[in-house]
């Protein structure tokens, strides 16, 4: 295909996506449903989509015993794989939305909760509560994660502001914060020094959906819905940031207030996700760029489709992570980084060309 | 009545940027804002747009202080074109012009017929109707400025503020942009470096030096050899040629030189 015809095809797809956003949203929802259903069947123990359906119907009907499967299989589906797959969907959706919002708000195509050190800060906050018992029981794990996320965000903003505030400085400050908080997390986990230590470090630094339970799914979904609603309510405001803060202000946007609200919202969502799945990197960086190429820059379309694409993406990445070296499990963050780093380089190249 | 700056001052880090500036716009008039770098032109424009607030003094719109009006309400009246706008987002010309509708739309409301009409009208008035699908990063500097003016027009402003809109443009596009602005039925303020362009297109000139207004009036009145020497430190010869006798400045060298 010549580059001209490729560009024509791309713009044709884009035009179609803009004309029929509802159709794409519907396709996304169907793809997500199918992905969850199929991903749950993947793995040892021969479980089919029909079994999954039967288990879900039985449990939602209030009578788990009615499922047409053995109790062991019922347990695998309902207690292990379903919450895990749903948490993957929630994390993927949340991280992609956070990435899209941060990229627009900070006018930085490389922004994402992981690159900016927010995820690492949340990890540190969470392990301080889990391992050292900071807060003396008054602070929950998500609460600690939120304070950690806000703390590292504040550090990155302060640092990048003092360095001049250009997009590359923000990323450099983020990298510094990420390293700092990752080391702090490792250090805190090591002080616990029991058999679980290494696993614990891997969980908080690289992310894992292995420990997912229904509480995680519930909390994650609630925070996701709340934050997504806040971000969608600010959709047009986010559009206004395309040409910078002054331009946004001249279009009637309260810049400081918007930044505060949206930075807190993304920190809250990141914290909720990190508290149950650790710091999964690069999902928030990669997905928004892919989706933006399809929907164009308008956030009213971009954000919901980012959520759907992120959800489908992480469901499959997690499935890959738990099956590729079975019975050993690869931390999901390793897989997202393997995919994410080349994409990171690609984005860097594109922004250089755009200058 | 329109935008008025009443004895506005602005300091940054203890240093005065603007010092007691009075500026009253007259409806439909294109005012040129002149002065060397650092004289406070950009700051004055940002105060007029309400993007910055004055340290003392007040900017009013139809007699009401800007800070009493909502940001959105101001943006529905006053539009700004920056010196050099750029974005890393892949946006089309139409996307950029649509941004101008933001102050007119509520958070969850879909695009209305009035929005579409305003965008189409802004594209038509800037001659961009056929280019609406082009991507921002493929446009030349002159085309980008034209798109920003279209975006400003989509705001349906009565006041238009432009901060050195001709910087970085070749001469054809400089004339093109200023002719476009001069023909618009709005009250406009244009910060400019080029004295001859200001003399050609503006109805009224205001000259800033070190944060104070040092001259104001019609181009013929304001642009004198003495003023150019005093404000810019440059020897100049002013001639009046052409049918409307607009002044023309010929530079002869710096005062020191």
From TrEMBL, chain A:
Keyword set, alphabetical order: Cell membrane, Membrane, Transmembrane, Transmembrane helix, Transport
Intracellular or extracellular location(s): Cell membrane
Pfam families, per the entry: FecCD (PF01032)
Primary localization class, coarse: membrane
Gene Ontology CC entries for this record: plasma membrane
GO molecular function terms attached to this record: transmembrane transporter activity
Gene3D superfamilies membership: ABC transporter involved in vitamin B12 uptake, BtuC
Keyword Flavoprotein assigned: no
Topological category with respect to the lipid bilayer: Multi-pass membrane protein
InterPro entries noted in UniProt: ABC_BtuC-like, ABC_transptr_permease_BtuC
One Gene Ontology term from the biological process aspect of the record: siderophore-iron import into cell
SUPFAM superfamilies reported for this sequence: ABC transporter involved in vitamin B12 uptake, BtuC (SSF81345)
Family, similarity comment: Belongs to the binding-protein-dependent transport system permease family. FecCD subfamily.
PANTHER family: FERRIC ENTEROBACTIN TRANSPORT SYSTEM PERMEASE PROTEIN (PTHR30472), PERMEASE OF ABC TRANSPORTER-RELATED (PTHR30472:SF67)
Name of the protein in its database record: Iron ABC transporter permease
UniProtKB/TrEMBL annotation, chain B:
Record's signal peptide: none
Keyword Ribonucleoprotein: no
PROSITE patterns reported for this sequence: ABC_TRANSPORTER_1 (PS00211), ABC_TRANSPORTER_2 (PS50893)
SUPFAM superfamilies reported in the protein's UniProt record: P-loop containing nucleoside triphosphate hydrolases
Organism from which the protein derives: Streptomyces parvulus
Name this polypeptide is given: Histidinol phosphatase
Pfam families noted in UniProt: ABC_tran
GO terms assigned for molecular function: ATP binding; ATP hydrolysis activity
Keyword terms of this UniProt record: ATP-binding, Nucleotide-binding, Transport
């Amino acid at each position: 295909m010549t580059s001209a015809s490729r560009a024509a095809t791309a713009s044709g797809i884009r035009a179609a996506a803009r004309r029929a956003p509802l159709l794409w949203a519907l396709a996304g929802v169907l793809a997500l449903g199918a992905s969850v259903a199929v991903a749950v069947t993947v793995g040892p123990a021969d479980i089919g989509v029909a079994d999954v359906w039967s288990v879900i119907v039985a449990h939602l009907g209030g009578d788990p015993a009615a499922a047409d499967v053995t109790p062991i299989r019922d347990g695998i589906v309902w207690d292990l794989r379903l919450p895990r797959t749903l948490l993957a969907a929630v994390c993927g959706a949340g991280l992609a939305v956070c990435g899209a919002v941060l990229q627009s708000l900070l006018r930085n195509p490389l922004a994402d909760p992981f690159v900016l050190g927010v995820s690492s800060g949340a990890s540190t906050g969470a392990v301080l509560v889990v391992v050292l018992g900071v807060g003396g029981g008054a602070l929950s794990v998500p609460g600690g994660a939120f304070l950690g996320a806000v703390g590292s965000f504040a550090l990155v903003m302060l640092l990048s502001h003092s360095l001049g505030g250009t997009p590359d400085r923000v990323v450099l400050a983020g990298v510094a914060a990420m390293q700092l908080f990752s080391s702090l997390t490792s250090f805190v986990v090591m002080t616990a020094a029991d058999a679980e230590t290494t696993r614990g470090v891997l969980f908080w630094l690289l992310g894992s959906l292995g420990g997912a339970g229904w509480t995680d799914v519930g909390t994650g979904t609630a925070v996701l819905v709340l934050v997504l609603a806040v971000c969608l309510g600010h959709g047009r405001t986010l559009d206004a940031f395309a040409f910078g803060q002054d331009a946004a202000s001249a279009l009637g946007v309260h810049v400081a207030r918007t930044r505060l609200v949206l930075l807190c919202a993304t920190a809250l969502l990141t914290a909720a996700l990190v508290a149950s799945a650790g710091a999964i990197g690069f999902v928030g960086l990669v997905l928004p760029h892919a989706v933006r190429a399809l929907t164009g820059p308008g956030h009213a379309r971009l954000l919901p489709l980012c959520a759907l694409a992120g959800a489908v993406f992480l469901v499959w990445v997690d499935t890959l992570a738990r099956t590729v070296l079975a019975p050993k499990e690869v931390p999901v963050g390793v897989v997202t980084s393997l995919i994410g780093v080349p994409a990171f380089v690609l984005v860097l190249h594109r922004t250089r060309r755009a200058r | 009545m329109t935008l008025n700056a009443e004895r506005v001052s602005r300091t940054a880090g203890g240093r005065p940027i603007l010092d007691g500036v009075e500026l009253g716009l007259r409806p439909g008039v294109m005012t040129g804002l002149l002065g060397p770098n650092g004289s406070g032109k950009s700051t004055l424009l940002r105060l007029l747009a309400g993007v910055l607030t004055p340290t003392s003094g007040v900017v009013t719109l139809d007699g009401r202080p800007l800070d009493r009006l909502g940001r959105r309400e101001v943006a529905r009246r006053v539009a700004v074109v920056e010196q050099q706008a750029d974005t890393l987002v892949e946006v089309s010309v139409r996307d950029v012009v649509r941004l101008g509708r933001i102050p007119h739309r509520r958070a969850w409301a879909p695009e209305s017929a009035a929005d579409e009409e305003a965008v189409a009208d802004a594209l038509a008035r800037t001659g961009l109707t056929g280019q609406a699908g082009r991507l921002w990063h493929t446009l030349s500097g002159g085309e980008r400025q034209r798109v920003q003016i279209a975006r400003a027009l989509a705001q349906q402003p009565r006041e238009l503020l432009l901060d050195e809109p001709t910087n970085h443009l070749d001469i054809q596009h400089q004339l093109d942009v200023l002719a476009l602005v001069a023909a618009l039925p709005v009250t406009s303020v244009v910060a400019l470096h080029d004295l001859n362009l200001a003399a050609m297109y503006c109805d009224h000139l205001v000259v800033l030096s070190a944060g104070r207004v040092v001259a104001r009036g019609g181009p013929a009145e304001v642009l004198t050899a003495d003023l150019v020497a005093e404000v810019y430190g440059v020897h100049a010869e002013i001639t009046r040629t052409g049918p409307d006798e607009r002044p023309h400045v010929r530079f002869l060298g710096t005062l020191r030189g």
